[in-house]
Design brief:
The protein is an alpha/beta fold and 202 residues long. It has 2 domains: 6-53, RecR Domain 1 (Helicase, Ruva Protein, domain 3, Orthogonal Bundle); 77-200, 3-Layer(aba) Sandwich (Dna Topoisomerase Vi A Subunit, Chain: A, domain 2), CATH 3.40.1360. The protein has 8 helices and 7 strands, in the order αααββαβαβαβαβαβ. The strands form 2 sheets. It has a 5-stranded mixed sheet with strand order 4-3-5-6-7. Strands 1-2 form a two-stranded antiparallel sheet. Helix 1 (6-16) packs across helix 2 (23-35) and helix 5 (91-100) crosses helix 8. Zinc ion is lined by residues 58, 60-61, 63, 71-72, 74-75.
Length: 202
Amino acid sequence: MKTLPAPVEALVESFARLPGIGPKSASRLAFYLLKAPDEVSIELAKALEELKANTGHCSRCFNITLAGEELCDICLSENRSEAILCVVEEPMDVLAIERTGAYQGKYHVLMGVLSPIDGIGPDQIKIFPLLERLKLGEVKEVIIATNPSMEGDATALYLQQRIAPMGIKVSRLARGLPVGADIEYADQNTLQRALSGRQSMD
Ligand SMILES: [Zn+2]
């Protein structure tokens, strides 16, 4: 039995592909848009279209930038320390750490995490650009803020083994974060504690 007209069905399916949205929420969102004033859908469509078209990645740290901008605001900032570098999995993690207001160094976004099972090795994520950055000699401490998951831990260990011989201090976010909890979802206080209580990996 075909229950929904094709355009509604298509939107429900698109919503259902998003993380954290099940079929029920997907239908709710689609029906909400059907009922809401036209502007709501038009603005949403415009925002979606511009999301990819008007953004890019910082050529140094791989954080999100406006399209056409070579470096992100954090890389450009002269008020932040070049001596301390926080390594995260995804651009959203930068946002989470920035929200704590407790960090004044720079970042490097790996754009993923090592996962041999999924065929993701060092070449598939931004590890070599990180090592190249570190060779410049300005960074004195690297804080590894990968998620407390099996892949996050393996990535942290891999990085520590590559970075420590360069004479750079390597630390890892304190274990205040619950295992399996992504950094992007950690509350500000927990994240701030994990940051200030970071532990040396040596
Ligand atoms: Zn940047």
